[in-house]
Specification:
The chain has 259 residues and is an alpha/beta fold. Helix content is 30%, strand content 17%. Strand 1, helix 1 and strand 2 form a beta-alpha-beta unit.
């Protein structure tokens, strides 16, 4: 099996401690990954055909080796990083720019908090000015659709449009429908999770957690240990692995309705 994209959660440490976090991240979180293991694993996957790796958490900027990993993998494959942006200033910002990831996604977890929306807008524009391609992961809870709509309007007014926004339906609970997402996105083309319409495996993607558990996505509880940091071990862990839906089952409209 050749996976085009893999996601690695470097740690479940995160100072933000959102109560809805699928990874149960916390300020005193942990990791089982060493820097050398991550680099070796990703290099081996790239040799077997993987074209892109995304680093998350937890908060990847709270993982001490993240910049070394990015630098050592430069030129190997497409490297992206997803961050809440709270640490993205001063020396951390300088080191991230020096590591030159191909893309940085900054997350808006609370669209009803104006200060968070404005902070992310500032940081996205700052990264752009420094030569780093950036975008926004916008969490969409069912109970806050009006606040999300206002946040989207603010983003658009700032020049950040749907081509740079990934609309992420909140999972486990408070889950919007695909139709909700389409309306929030202004019924224009938009980016979202591949499972927006239905929970299913992707033959191109998998996720590996901070404690080296492999799953078909970041949310599923159906996982197997990664026995070794190699592409072969990854294939073995995925063989016949099931996929467990991560929460509420919303009413799923047809694709025509969602569009």
């Amino acid at each position: 099996m050749t996976l085009e994209r893999i996601s690695i959660e470097l740690t479940n440490q995160c100072s933000k401690r959102c109560e809805f976090c699928y990874n149960h991240s916390q300020p005193d979180g942990q990791t089982l990954w060493t820097t050398d293991e991550v680099v070796s694993f990703v290099q081996d996957c790239a040799q077997h055909g993987t074209r892109s790796v995304s680093f998350g958490g937890g908060e990847p900027l709270e993982y001490p080796g993240v910049f070394e990993i990015l630098q050592r993998l430069q030129g190997t494959l497409f490297r992206s990083l997803t961050s809440n942006g709270l640490w993205l200033h001063r020396e951390t910002l300088k080191r991230l720019v020096e590591a030159q990831p191909e893309k940085v996604h900054l997350s808006i977890h609370f669209p009803d908090r104006h200060r968070e929306v404005e902070r992310i807008i500032h940081q996205v524009k700052q990264l752009e000015a420094l030569g780093i391609r950036s975008g926004i992961n916008l969490l969409v809870p069912k109970s806050r659709l009006s606040a999300v709509a206002q946040a989207v309007q603010t983003l658009h007014q700032a020049g950040i449009h749907n081509d740079r926004i990934v609309y992420l339906p909140q999972r486990i609970r408070d889950t919007p429908t695909p139709k909700d997402i389409a309306q929030i996105a202004g019924r224009q083309p938009f980016q979202s999770m591949s499972c927006l319409m239905a929970c299913q495996k992707s033959p191109r993607f998998c996720s590996i957690s901070w404690n080296k558990q492999v799953g078909w996505c970041s949310y599923t509880v159906a996982r197997r240990p990664l026995a070794a940091p190699t592409a072969v071990a990854l294939d073995t862990a995925l063989e016949d692995l099931s996929l467990t839906f991560c929460g509420e089952t919303p009413s799923i409209p047809s694709i025509a309705e969602a569009n």
